[in-house]
Write a structure and sequence with these properties.
single chain, 373 residues, alpha/beta, Rossmann fold, 2 domains, eight-stranded mixed β-sheet, seven-stranded mixed β-sheet, 14 helices, 16% strand, globular, alanine dehydrogenase activity, EC 1.4.1.1, NAD
């Protein structure tokens, strides 16, 4: 199979869809891998590294898209990219279609087969291709939040861990999934006073057993969140409904409960955000203020630590990329029900129900697509 790895073009996105080590494995399997020149240069993965691994270097993105049977990326295709996709091509990347109607329509129009990292599952019910970036984003959320709390950044002027004789910052983490756990762990490590909300009692019990009284846990309700907001310095939004738009857990009206200069970090922004006042930002301009509250809503947070993120992502995606390349997309999905759940779009049909519902578009069951209907 001819596999293409383009340079990412989203603002301040320095990750790349495959490391040279990943390329080497695919070449050993008998596949041809094209990598756009300079795709990994910003993080020290140079063209010569890819060439040594057996990749063909392609200068022009249009040529790479036209020749590749499968495109492997990191971020969702931008408009100029999904316009280059065509019928019969496979796209394997993060998509986050539920809050993004233009991209959804663009992929449907292209006729391609689009498989989303974020909806691939595993035997434990987890999301193995989202997990590594969620781990990074959860840790970065606290790091970014701590910076935003500095007075020069518009924050309250609060040190996350406090100092002897001065109380630490209070951190609320909304969601006990991978992002939430790593955010809580990072905040605890910095000495903050941390409260985590979730609707799963088993998860709350698990976290209580792991962290003991150092981590406060609360069952997530609107009343419980409202009761804690007046004492919060930093709120991390870490909720996820796979493939669907994130629920709005903090409304604009609830912002008045927060102290002025408090910080909201919305890690769910790729799925539309879990704060009503959120809108996607970039690493170039990461924050904005609403009613005196600082919002950090960078849509590609792990891109800020792009080298770590690239290696972590390739570790997770490579076995699935190999399956798709070795077997072809249809056979690979038929053989692996968990990879099959990644199928979002095929030949102008929407195959992921939560996305179809989010956009009020027709839904084609996955089983029909795999059966060749």
């Amino acid at each position: 199979m001819d596999i293409g790895v383009p340079t990412e073009i989203k603002n301040h996105e320095y990750r790349v869809g495959m490391t040279p080590g990943g390329v080497k494995e695919l070449v050993r399997d008998g596949h041809r891998v094209m990598v756009q020149s300079g795709a990994g240069a910003a993080i020290g993965l140079l063209d010569e590294h890819y060439a040594d691994a057996g990749a063909e270097l392609v200068t022009d993105a249009a040529e790479l898209f036209s020749r590749a049977e499968m495109i492997v990326k990191v971020k969702e295709p931008q408009a100029e990219e999904y316009r280059r996709l065509g019928s019969g091509q496979v796209l394997f990347t993060y998509l986050h279609l539920a809050p993004d109607l233009p991209q959804t329509r663009g992929l449907l129009k292209s006729g391609c087969t689009a498989i989303a990292y974020e909806t691939v599952t595993d035997r434990q019910g987890g999301l193995p291709l989202l997990a590594p970036m969620s781990e990074v984003a959860g840790r970065m959320a606290v790091q970014a939040g701590a910076h935003c709390l500095e007075k020069a950044q518009g924050g309250r002027g609060v040190l996350l861990g406090g100092v002897p004789g001065v109380a630490p910052a209070r951190v609320l983490v909304l969601g006990g999934g991978v992002v939430g756990i790593h955010a809580a762990r990072m905040a605890l490590g910095l000495g903050a006073d941390v409260t985590l909300f979730d609707k799963s009692l088993p998860r709350l019990k698990e976290l209580d057993n792991l962290y003991g009284p150092g981590l406060k846990t609360l069952y997530s309700t609107t009343d419980a969140i409202e009761a804690e907001l007046p004492r919060a310095d930093l709120v991390v939004g870490a909720v996820l409904i796979p493939g669907a738009a994130a629920p709005k857990l903090v409304t604009r009206d609830m912002l008045k409960l927060l102290p002025k200069g408090a910080v909201l970090v919305d890690v769910a922004i790729d799925q539309g955000g879990c704060f009503e006042t959120s809108r996607a930002t970039t690493h170039r301009q990461p924050t904005f203020e609403v009613d005196g509250i600082v919002h950090y809503c960078v849509a590609n947070m792990p891109g800020g630590v792009a080298r770590t993120s690239t290696f972590a992502l390739t570790n997770a995606t490579l076995p699935f990329i190999q399956a798709l390349a070795n077997k072809g997309w249809r056979r690979a999905l038929q053989d692996d029900e968990h990879l099959a759940r990644g199928l979002n779009v095929h030949a102008g049909k929407l195959c992921y129900q939560a996305v179809a519902e989010a956009h009020d578009l027709p839904y084609t069951p996955l089983e029909d697509v795999l059966a060749g209907a």
